Write a sequence for this structure.
């Protein structure tokens, strides 16, 4: 099995086992970190194992290899196709190039200060992700890795960081920009820095993105990412 197959399970049984809650053949992240969950296999036993991790009415999010099919005791809440993309540009140059927009920006905008986000920044991180909806982000998500941000007039307007970690790979996640501050290349700047830090550890960056997010997918291609597989996100509620 490739490390990025059943990636949530692999993360929770290897590099991120410290964040796992377990029941038989199922694992989930501590709820205050994220709703991402997984099982060893998508069998009846796997879904039954998940029930031991969720209270009635509670929800979990899974990455599946195929679209979700109904299972007893679970209600389908939402789902979408999500390409899993892996960085393949060995030169690293793609992540360091700027849009032509740079010529139209002031020197302050063209060279924004990147700050490392900590516990005191969580309220703003939650506010920004609630507005832009890059994916599940909870009070303790930042504990999964380094998160970087850009501020304007003291306000957090863009961020990106690390989420899932498996042997040899780290996921770039929570890439988002406040709608009033798009067009400055902030997502690219932050992603390039996150990717550089991942690669400096001898690891390969990867990510997940909604299939209908054409603009983001275009950016990721320019940064050197290629689609590996098409995953299926399924949000389920325990009946």
């Amino acid at each position: 099995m490739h490390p990025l197959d059943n990636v949530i399970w692999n993360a929770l049984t290897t590099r991120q086992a410290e964040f796992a809650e377990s029941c038989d053949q199922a694992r989930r992240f501590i709820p205050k970190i994220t709703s991402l969950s997984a099982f060893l296999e998508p069998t009846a036993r796997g879904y039954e194992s998940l029930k031991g991790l969720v209270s009635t009415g509670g929800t979990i999010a899974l990455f599946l290899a195929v679209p979700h099919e109904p299972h007893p005791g679970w209600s389908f809440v939402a789902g979408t196709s999500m390409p899993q993309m892996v960085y393949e540009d060995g030169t690293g140059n793609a992540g360091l190039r700027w849009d032509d927009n740079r010529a139209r920006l002031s020197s302050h905008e063209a060279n924004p200060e990147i700050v490392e986000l900590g516990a005191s920044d969580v309220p703003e991180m939650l506010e920004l992700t609630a507005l832009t909806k890059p994916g599940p982000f909870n009070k303790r998500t930042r504990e999964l890795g380094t998160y970087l941000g850009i501020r304007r007039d003291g306000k957090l307007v863009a961020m990106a960081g690390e989420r899932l970690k498996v042997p040899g790979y780290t996921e770039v996640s929570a890439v988002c920009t406040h709608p009033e501050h798009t067009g400055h290349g902030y997502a690219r700047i932050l992603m390039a820095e996150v990717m550089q830090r991942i690669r400096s550890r001898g690891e390969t960056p990867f990510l997940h993105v909604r299939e209908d997010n054409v603009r983001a997918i275009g950016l990721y291609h320019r940064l050197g990412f290629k689609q590996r597989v098409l995953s299926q996100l399924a949000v389920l509620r325990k009946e």
Notes: Confidence is low (pLDDT under 50) at residues 91-108. Residues 186-200 form the longest helix (15 residues).
